[in-house]
Amino acid sequence: MTMNNNRLLKIEMLSTGDEVLQGDIADTNAAWLGQKLGDLGLKFQSRHTVADDLDDLVSSMRECAKRSDWVFVNGGLGPTSDDCSAQAAARLLGVELELYQPWLEQLQQWYARKNLVMPQSNAKQAMLPKGAEFVDNPVGTACGFIIEYEGAKLIFTPGVPSEMKKMALEQWFPRLPVSFDTGVKRFYSFGLSESWLNDKIDKLTLPLGARIGYRSARPSIEIKIFYDGRCGVDTRLSFEAQVRELIGSFLFCEDQGNWAQSLQDEMLVRKLKLSLAESCTGGMIADQLVAQAGSSAYFVGGIVAYSNSVKSQILKVSDKDLAQYGAVSLSVVEQMAQGVRQVLGSDIGIATSGVAGPDGGSESKPVGTVCFAISTANASFSQTLKFSSPGRHPIRVMATAVAMDMLRRYLNGLSLSADYQLASRIEQQGSEFL
């Protein structure tokens, strides 16, 4: 298929099945495929779902092929009477179904290895439209196939997610035309709202061949720039520099989107060790960090100091300060960070203590009040923020993110006193540059 390099490849997805159409089964295949295409700088032009009806399938395939270059048809390749995608494809082309003997033999061998006799109905899965290109399925009984209709390629795959994904990764994506100069750039920010980012970026001059997308994945915001062949490399780099400058110190990573991994990389480069003392976050920070393989190279450990007795007996927080200021205070959280750093022998200690709710708040310390501290051998910084996020879990999630952001800011020499749009600052103590 020959196409103009300056035109973005038009792709549609046609999902089949009454159970998908009626909502009995969520169409996770479409969501996954859309994300993977996005990684390649491509996107769906549209997505459709059609019932297990032969006439409707043929009509939908015909309409999709008129509009698109590639049409992914998902589902309807099973052995039952309502699986009719292959039959619909044959009718679309005006050809007969014919037996693909190698696949029938493979099915028979698959059943024989399990000491089973293949049901006659499974032979249906070896019937392909005449002239179709066979696509192997190494993990299931429904093979895929490809046909061409009026200049469009229609790619058929089984609806089982594991089978569809393996087929897409190993056999579909390598077939996508390499002549298309597409791409995608991702920025991940924390602390700025999606609407603020949208308003600011909208004021920039968007290059020809570029489009912007946003995704709120609390607690971060993903900004995606999609390019087609009309947007040259120099233009892309120039525009990305403008976006990067606009986000400023709230940009925590690019492309990979894995905050914990980016922190790990920076800690390992600097050969630093980290320990945590968590109260209201209850181990959520540690959970984020240890989800990355190799985190033991820098993360010493953490203490969930939920009760005051643990704070005083293990972290050596002053009983007097606990009584005078309370557990949710700068004095206490700073001692927690210092204490865990000393007890566990790390270079950096980070601590959290707050009121996550729904109970426990007061007039001076309402629900959503969280204290943070970071301690090194030379200095400490602590701050109290008030989150407006409703609910215990969202408050803990945001507190976890702020703690991780404080570590990022420290490692990059940025101000620890960030003006987060998601919270209001109550007070702070110590130098914001450690």
Automatic annotation (TrEMBL):
SUPFAM superfamilies reported for this sequence: CinA-like, Molybdenum cofactor biosynthesis proteins
InterPro entries the UniProt entry points to: CinA, CinA-like_C, CinA_C, Competence-induced_CinA, MoaB/Mog-like_dom_sf, MoaB/Mog_dom
Domain MoaB/Mog: residue ranges: 12-179
The family this protein is said to belong to: Belongs to the CinA family.
UniProt-recorded name of the protein: CinA-like protein
Species in which this protein is naturally found: Alginatibacterium sediminis
